[in-house]
């Protein structure tokens, strides 16, 4: 029996729709600028013909389940929401083809990639990593995992986010620049993908700031819903 110097944290996990078992979460990969309109609003248009997807990682410790309250994080005056489809990986894969990629998908979730936008812009202008902007406590908000219904991966479906009942983001999964199979195949060139990995697939346009007291409600057609309340800072 292994003896630890202090009690290790409990494994990160998410509920699964229709099951009392939970989905253990490993790595959280996030794709940047995967909707054209969002890329334009961020001042960085994407040309798929000449560019490749790029990624950043959130620690599993940043996970926060839907329905919770997120304390306004320190170090920022511009906390923004990014509503996203999240792909849950259920099988190992390395250097897989796009045709093989669908077999790695176990299910889907709704996700919020919460972002300290002011810190991100400072890092971007200085050519520095985005860790402080993207990887912080409670920065990955997730709904329950919905098991994949059939052999094919999602190709379309409305994705929306409301703040205090007003629509802020509205798009469709059909607008993804890089599809789910393309993203999985590309990521698997660099990583041995494993069961429990999650992939945030990008956000539509309409990202904007939230403040304490705001109530967020997001949905993705065929996947589910999530809610989040922004609390006072600690």
UniProtKB/TrEMBL annotation:
<protein>
    <submittedName>
        <fullName>5-carboxymethyl-2-hydroxymuconate isomerase</fullName>
    </submittedName>
</protein>
<keyword id="KW-0479">Metal-binding</keyword>
<dbReference type="GO" id="GO:0046872">
    <property type="term" value="F:metal ion binding"/>
</dbReference>
<dbReference type="InterPro" id="IPR011234">
    <property type="entry name" value="Fumarylacetoacetase-like_C"/>
</dbReference>
<dbReference type="Pfam" id="PF01557">
    <property type="entry name" value="FAA_hydrolase"/>
</dbReference>
<dbReference type="GO" id="GO:0018773">
    <property type="term" value="F:acetylpyruvate hydrolase activity"/>
</dbReference>
<dbReference type="InterPro" id="IPR036663">
    <property type="entry name" value="Fumarylacetoacetase_C_sf"/>
</dbReference>
<feature type="domain" description="Fumarylacetoacetase-like C-terminal">
    <location>
        <begin position="28"/>
        <end position="230"/>
    </location>
</feature>
<dbReference type="GO" id="GO:0016853">
    <property type="term" value="F:isomerase activity"/>
</dbReference>
<keyword id="KW-0413">Isomerase</keyword>
């Amino acid at each position: 029996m292994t003896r630890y110097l202090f009690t290790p944290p409990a494994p990160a996990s998410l509920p699964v729709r229709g099951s009392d078992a939970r989905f253990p979460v490993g790595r959280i990969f996030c794709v940047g600028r995967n909707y054209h309109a969002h890329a334009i609003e961020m001042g960085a248009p994407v040309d798929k013909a000449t560019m490749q997807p790029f990624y950043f990682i959130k620690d599993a410790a940043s996970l926060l389940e839907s329905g919770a309250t997120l304390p306004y994080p320190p170090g920022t005056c511009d906390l923004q929401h990014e509503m996203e489809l999240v792909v849950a990986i259920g099988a190992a894969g390395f250097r897989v083809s796009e045709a093989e990629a669908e077999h790695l998908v176990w299910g889907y979730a709704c996700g919020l990639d919460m972002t300290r936008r002011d810190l991100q812009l400072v890092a971007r202008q200085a050519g520095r990593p985005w860790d402080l902007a993207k990887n912080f406590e409670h920065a990955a908000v997730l709904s329950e995992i919905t098991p994949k219904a059939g052999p094919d991966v999602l190709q379309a479906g409305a994705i929306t986010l409301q703040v205090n009942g007003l629509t802020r983001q509205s798009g469709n999964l059909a607008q993804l620049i890089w599809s789910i199979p393309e993203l999985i195949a590309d990521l698997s060139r660099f990583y041995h993908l494993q069961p429990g990995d999650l992939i945030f697939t990008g956000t539509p346009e309409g990202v904007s700031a939230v403040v304490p007291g705001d109530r967020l409600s997001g949905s993705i057609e065929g996947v589910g819903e999530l809610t989040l309340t922004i609390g006072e800072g600690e």
